[in-house]
Sequence to fold (176 residues):
Amino acid sequence: MPPQDMTTAASPSGGAVPEHPGPDRLLDSLQHQVAVFARRAEQTRLGGVGQVRNSMDRAAYLLLNRLDREGPMGVKALAAGMGIDSSTVTRQVAPLVDTGLVKRTSHPEDGRAVVLQLSPRGQARLEEVRASRRELMSQVTDGWTQEERDTFCALLTRFNGSLAARQVAYQPPQPD
Fold:
Protein backbone atom coordinates (compact mmCIF):
# COMPACT_ATOMS: atom_id res chain seq x y z
CA MET A 1 0.00 0.00 0.00
CA PRO A 2 1.35 3.49 -0.81
CA PRO A 3 2.49 5.69 2.05
CA GLN A 4 -0.23 7.86 3.53
CA ASP A 5 0.14 11.60 3.31
CA MET A 6 -2.12 14.61 3.02
CA THR A 7 -2.91 13.67 -0.59
CA THR A 8 -4.04 10.09 -0.17
CA ALA A 9 -7.11 8.88 1.60
CA ALA A 10 -7.34 5.86 3.85
CA SER A 11 -9.05 3.70 1.24
CA PRO A 12 -6.97 1.32 -0.90
CA SER A 13 -8.07 3.14 -4.05
CA GLY A 14 -6.73 6.42 -2.69
CA GLY A 15 -10.17 7.99 -2.93
CA ALA A 16 -12.00 9.79 -0.20
CA VAL A 17 -15.42 8.95 -1.59
CA PRO A 18 -17.92 7.60 0.94
CA GLU A 19 -20.00 4.56 -0.06
CA HIS A 20 -22.95 6.74 -1.17
CA PRO A 21 -21.50 10.18 -1.74
CA GLY A 22 -23.63 13.21 -2.42
CA PRO A 23 -22.83 15.19 -5.54
CA ASP A 24 -20.76 17.75 -3.64
CA ARG A 25 -18.67 15.11 -1.84
CA LEU A 26 -18.05 13.26 -5.09
CA LEU A 27 -17.04 16.45 -6.92
CA ASP A 28 -14.82 17.44 -3.98
CA SER A 29 -13.14 14.05 -4.15
CA LEU A 30 -12.77 14.29 -7.93
CA GLN A 31 -11.15 17.72 -7.84
CA HIS A 32 -8.87 16.54 -5.04
CA GLN A 33 -7.76 13.46 -6.99
CA VAL A 34 -7.13 15.58 -10.10
CA ALA A 35 -4.99 17.94 -8.00
CA VAL A 36 -3.06 15.00 -6.52
CA PHE A 37 -2.57 13.55 -10.00
CA ALA A 38 -1.30 16.89 -11.34
CA ARG A 39 1.17 17.22 -8.47
CA ARG A 40 2.46 13.67 -8.78
CA ALA A 41 2.67 13.92 -12.55
CA GLU A 42 4.71 17.11 -12.20
CA GLN A 43 6.91 15.57 -9.50
CA THR A 44 7.82 12.70 -11.78
CA ARG A 45 7.25 14.74 -14.96
CA LEU A 46 5.80 11.41 -15.96
CA GLY A 47 9.39 11.01 -17.01
CA GLY A 48 9.28 7.30 -17.22
CA VAL A 49 11.69 4.90 -15.66
CA GLY A 50 15.43 4.83 -15.48
CA GLN A 51 17.70 7.79 -15.76
CA VAL A 52 16.71 11.39 -15.22
CA ARG A 53 17.62 12.02 -18.86
CA ASN A 54 14.45 10.15 -19.82
CA SER A 55 12.29 12.93 -18.41
CA MET A 56 11.19 15.89 -20.48
CA ASP A 57 9.51 19.14 -19.64
CA ARG A 58 5.75 18.89 -20.13
CA ALA A 59 5.60 21.81 -22.56
CA ALA A 60 8.43 20.40 -24.66
CA TYR A 61 6.85 16.96 -24.75
CA LEU A 62 3.47 18.31 -25.86
CA LEU A 63 5.02 20.53 -28.55
CA LEU A 64 7.22 17.75 -29.94
CA ASN A 65 4.33 15.30 -29.83
CA ARG A 66 2.05 17.66 -31.75
CA LEU A 67 4.68 18.35 -34.42
CA ASP A 68 5.25 14.61 -34.75
CA ARG A 69 1.57 13.80 -35.11
CA GLU A 70 0.50 16.73 -37.28
CA GLY A 71 3.65 17.64 -39.17
CA PRO A 72 5.28 21.01 -39.74
CA MET A 73 3.23 24.08 -38.83
CA GLY A 74 3.53 27.72 -37.96
CA VAL A 75 3.54 29.15 -34.46
CA LYS A 76 -0.07 30.39 -34.74
CA ALA A 77 -1.37 26.98 -35.81
CA LEU A 78 0.63 25.24 -33.10
CA ALA A 79 -0.65 27.68 -30.47
CA ALA A 80 -4.26 27.35 -31.63
CA GLY A 81 -4.06 23.56 -31.61
CA MET A 82 -2.69 23.56 -28.09
CA GLY A 83 -5.06 26.21 -26.79
CA ILE A 84 -2.28 28.58 -25.73
CA ASP A 85 -1.01 31.99 -26.77
CA SER A 86 1.41 32.37 -29.70
CA SER A 87 3.91 34.21 -27.52
CA THR A 88 3.92 31.26 -25.12
CA VAL A 89 4.62 28.83 -27.97
CA THR A 90 7.42 31.11 -29.22
CA ARG A 91 9.03 31.09 -25.76
CA GLN A 92 8.62 27.32 -25.38
CA VAL A 93 9.93 26.52 -28.87
CA ALA A 94 13.10 28.66 -28.57
CA PRO A 95 15.05 26.18 -26.41
CA LEU A 96 13.86 23.31 -28.61
CA VAL A 97 15.31 25.07 -31.64
CA ASP A 98 18.50 25.95 -29.73
CA THR A 99 19.05 22.30 -28.77
CA GLY A 100 18.28 21.05 -32.27
CA LEU A 101 15.07 19.19 -31.43
CA VAL A 102 12.99 21.46 -33.65
CA LYS A 103 14.03 23.25 -36.80
CA ARG A 104 12.60 26.29 -38.53
CA THR A 105 12.00 25.84 -42.25
CA SER A 106 10.31 27.76 -45.03
CA HIS A 107 6.65 27.03 -45.64
CA PRO A 108 6.39 24.76 -48.69
CA GLU A 109 3.70 26.92 -50.35
CA ASP A 110 4.76 30.37 -49.11
CA GLY A 111 8.53 30.65 -48.82
CA ARG A 112 8.19 33.86 -46.79
CA ALA A 113 6.44 32.04 -43.93
CA VAL A 114 8.31 29.95 -41.40
CA VAL A 115 7.12 26.60 -40.08
CA LEU A 116 8.36 24.53 -37.19
CA GLN A 117 9.33 20.95 -37.84
CA LEU A 118 10.54 18.08 -35.69
CA SER A 119 14.20 17.42 -36.46
CA PRO A 120 15.63 13.89 -36.71
CA ARG A 121 17.27 14.53 -33.32
CA GLY A 122 13.91 15.67 -31.93
CA GLN A 123 12.22 12.55 -33.32
CA ALA A 124 14.82 10.30 -31.66
CA ARG A 125 14.53 12.13 -28.34
CA LEU A 126 10.74 12.00 -28.45
CA GLU A 127 10.81 8.24 -29.10
CA GLU A 128 13.21 7.76 -26.18
CA VAL A 129 10.89 9.67 -23.83
CA ARG A 130 7.79 7.90 -25.16
CA ALA A 131 9.37 4.49 -24.57
CA SER A 132 10.31 5.45 -21.02
CA ARG A 133 6.82 6.80 -20.32
CA ARG A 134 5.22 3.67 -21.80
CA GLU A 135 7.28 1.59 -19.39
CA LEU A 136 6.21 3.81 -16.48
CA MET A 137 2.53 3.46 -17.46
CA SER A 138 3.02 -0.29 -17.72
CA GLN A 139 4.52 -0.44 -14.24
CA VAL A 140 1.95 1.87 -12.64
CA THR A 141 -0.97 -0.12 -14.09
CA ASP A 142 0.68 -3.53 -13.75
CA GLY A 143 -2.09 -4.95 -11.55
CA TRP A 144 -4.85 -3.62 -13.79
CA THR A 145 -6.80 -5.63 -16.31
CA GLN A 146 -6.75 -4.59 -19.96
CA GLU A 147 -10.37 -3.50 -19.57
CA GLU A 148 -9.43 -1.26 -16.61
CA ARG A 149 -6.61 0.31 -18.63
CA ASP A 150 -8.93 0.86 -21.59
CA THR A 151 -11.64 2.36 -19.39
CA PHE A 152 -9.22 4.64 -17.56
CA CYS A 153 -7.70 5.85 -20.84
CA ALA A 154 -11.15 6.46 -22.37
CA LEU A 155 -12.37 8.38 -19.33
CA LEU A 156 -9.18 10.42 -19.01
CA THR A 157 -9.35 11.25 -22.73
CA ARG A 158 -12.98 12.30 -22.33
CA PHE A 159 -12.12 14.37 -19.23
CA ASN A 160 -9.28 16.15 -21.08
CA GLY A 161 -11.58 16.77 -24.05
CA SER A 162 -14.17 18.33 -21.76
CA LEU A 163 -11.52 20.57 -20.20
CA ALA A 164 -10.29 21.62 -23.65
CA ALA A 165 -13.84 22.38 -24.85
CA ARG A 166 -14.48 24.46 -21.75
CA GLN A 167 -11.25 26.38 -22.27
CA VAL A 168 -12.19 27.16 -25.88
CA ALA A 169 -15.68 28.25 -24.86
CA TYR A 170 -14.36 30.71 -22.27
CA GLN A 171 -11.32 31.98 -24.16
CA PRO A 172 -11.41 35.44 -25.75
CA PRO A 173 -10.55 35.44 -29.46
CA GLN A 174 -6.87 36.01 -30.30
CA PRO A 175 -6.02 39.18 -32.24
CA ASP A 176 -4.61 38.55 -35.73
